[in-house]
Amino acid sequence: ADAVAELLVRRDGADPELAARAARASQSHIGLARHLATDAGAWDRRRRLLLAPVSLRSVGDAVLAAASLVEAAESEAKEATAERDAREKAELTRALGLESDGRIPAALRAQIRQLEEDQKRRAKRARTDVLDRAMIDLLSFYRDVLTTQMGSDVERVNLDLSEAVDQAARTTSPEQSLTRIAAIEECRSRLRSNAAPLLAVEALMVQLRPQAEGR
């Protein structure tokens, strides 16, 4: 974690205290740590994400939470790629000698279409990356819960959520925590294998409900 924090300070100009906090919260995942250290709203979104599952009371709640997470991921991915997409399209349009708002000749449509397809694939990858970050965060929470249940003296990743971790540790069993950790890992795998994001996350949220039984 120290090496990641130092990198964030040196490369991204992050505040040292924030960099250390981001490195710990990300479990030294460089991409996630950089996101936490450079995105002003990242911590608030992360907190809402981690507190959401413990407040779910029904399958309906789980479905709504999944929809909210996937929608937020799509929005963040779109924001991250929109500027580059627009720049690439403008550059290609100029290179082809076209007006930015003009009609595209049939002979040139294939090149425009290829660019659009490439951008769609990149947007999907960006969405998957955002959702994967969410899965890493959820894993950190339930690992904190499990280590608390097992009486381990390992330092928590989510020190700012100690109350929620303690509550979950008291009201669930280690077996349930292991089941939830496995469910998150399964969701990560499904997302990477191009499963429908909403269905994958819905299935996960249903399993993360406090009422869900460990298997």
Strand content: under 5%
Major sheet size, sense and barrel closure: none
**Gyration radius, rounded:** 21 Å
Following the backbone from N to C, one meets helices and strands in this order, namely HHHHHHHHH
Helical content band: over 70%
What class, by secondary structure content? mainly alpha
Number of domains: 2
Overall shape: globular
Q: What is the terminal separation in angstroms?
A: 34 Å
Number of helices: 9
Q: Averaging pLDDT over every residue, what do you get?
A: 90
Low-confidence stretches: none
Number of strands: 0
Summarize the structure.
This protein has 215 residues and is mainly α. 74% of the residues lie in helices and 0% in strands.
Question: Any chance you could write out the topology, listing elements then pairs?
Answer:
Blueprint: H1 2-12, H2 16-25, H3 30-38, H4 42-51, H5 59-95, H6 109-149, H7 162-171, H8 174-192, H9 197-208
Helix pairs in contact: 1-2, 1-3, 2-3, 5-6, 5-9, 6-7, 6-8, 8-9
